[in-house]
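Report of the visiting student (M.T.), summer placement. My assignment was to run the structure pipeline on a short list of targets and document each run. The first record concerns U32 family peptidase.
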Amino acid sequence: MAPELQTAIAQTKLQCPELLAPAGNWECAKAAIENGADAIYFGLDRFNARMRAENFTEADLPDLMAFLHRRGVKGYVTMNTLIFPSELPEAEQYLRSIISAGVDAAIVQDVGICRLIRHLSPDFPIHASTQMTVTSTAGVEFAKDLDCQLVVLARETSLKDINRIQQQTAKLDVTLPLEVFVHGALCVAYSGQCLTGESLGGG
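After the run finished, the structure tokens were exported:
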């Protein structure tokens, strides 16, 4: 191998991305693991954007997380809806269960839930959901101010936009991992604007 090529390879520190797959039940979770997922994300029976789909329950959490961790797989719970004030007591109880069950992170849309998580735990990981509609460097900065550890960019963000955001955040020393959807997003509305899709297509 040419010396200049060896140098270029040595200087290029590529990180293998985490492969994250959705799983709404035990069969899906097992299939994701068997096919190489590094982590799965799933909703519970409240406060997630796929309430009409099959979901795990709060009671499933301890066994599910033990199952995942025995196999070296992480589990993230989606709390990716906006929470009404009347729902906050139940949301807090859910968060306490999520944290105590050893969940690896919560994927969150609501700014208030980010702050509630930090009130309950000083270090429980928060991932900014694609439902936050983060499409810019300013959005990543905002997520960092909320003490998020990762940002899931809006699904409509282009490769050019992603590259620009990475370059700008690096210059500003706003170092947060960025996550993107690569397959399976069927919504035709902007990320996080679910009422638009609901009114247009009922989905």
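Helices lie at 3-11, 26-34, 61-70, 88-100, 111-120, 137-145, 159-171, 194-201. The CA atoms of residues 30 and 109 lie 27 Å apart. I thank the supervising group for their guidance throughout the placement.
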